[in-house]
Design brief:
By secondary structure, the protein is an alpha/beta fold. 43% of the residues lie in helices and 14% in strands. The chain has helices spanning 6-15, 23-35, 38-54, 71-74, 89-98, 125-133, 148-161, 186-194; strands at residues 56-57, 64-65, 79-86, 103-107, 139-142, 167-170, 197-198.
């Protein structure tokens, strides 16, 4: 049922498509946008379009980036022999905020989840194995979320890495079961990195 203009309803509809945004919050956001100066709305729109036009995936680690390779992979100050494997790009940002890891990353693009139709071939696992096969990597840290899907993915990847001369570790269980790296505080993440254990 339409109570206001079509343009308002269209924006409410678009906002409500975002994760964890219900219709009520979408209406609040729309009301906020209506009050914004046109120049700020234009900046927001330009930032959204630029995001889709400029952001790509690093061909080495599959993190989001404006430049390929990404700044982390390209940095001579990073330890290229230690790779931290994460589910999504948001996890890279969470770990970087701790300032406790100086290696490089590998973004899987999700986890193995048969119920959701996601198998190993849907993730960047083959690419990780190819990186490890170059023999420049000495440790792989599996920093996937501590839930059933994360545990399954960690086990699968650790089995594939077993033939290689590489230390495979996993974040310590300082992160609550069922929690997400993205929402874990920096201190807990830093302790989890320091207390990682072999798989």
């Amino acid at each position: 049922m339409q109570f206001t203009s079509e343009s308002v309803e269209d924006l409410v509809e678009q906002f409500s498509k975002l994760p964890s945004i219900g219709r009520k919050t979408a209406r609040r956001l729309t009301a906020f946008v209506l009050k914004m100066p046109k120049s700020e709305v234009q900046e927001l729109a330009d930032a959204l379009i630029a995001l889709k036009e400029r952001v790509k995936f690093c061909t080495i680690c599959f993190n989001v980036t404006d430049h390929d390779p990404c700044p982390i992979c390209a940095s001579p100050k990073r330890d290229q022999s230690t790779v931290c494997v994460v589910e999504e790009a948001n996890d890279v940002m969470a770990l970087e905020r701790t300032q406790g890891f100086n290696g490089v990353y590998h973004v899987l693009g999700g986890v193995i989840s048969p119920l959701d139709g996601i198998g190993p071939d849907d993730l960047k696992i083959r690419e990780l194995i190819a990186r490890v096969a170059t023999k420049t990597i000495t440790e792989v840290i599996l920093a996937v979320n501590p839930n059933v899907e994360g545990d399954t993915t960690a086990y699968y990847v650790s089995q594939l890495l077993a033939p290689f001369e590489v230390t495979v570790s996993r974040l310590a269980r300082g992160i609550p079961m069922g929690g997400d790296l993205e929402f874990t505080d920096e201190a807990t993440l830093a302790r989890a990195l320091e207390g990682r254990v072999s798989v």
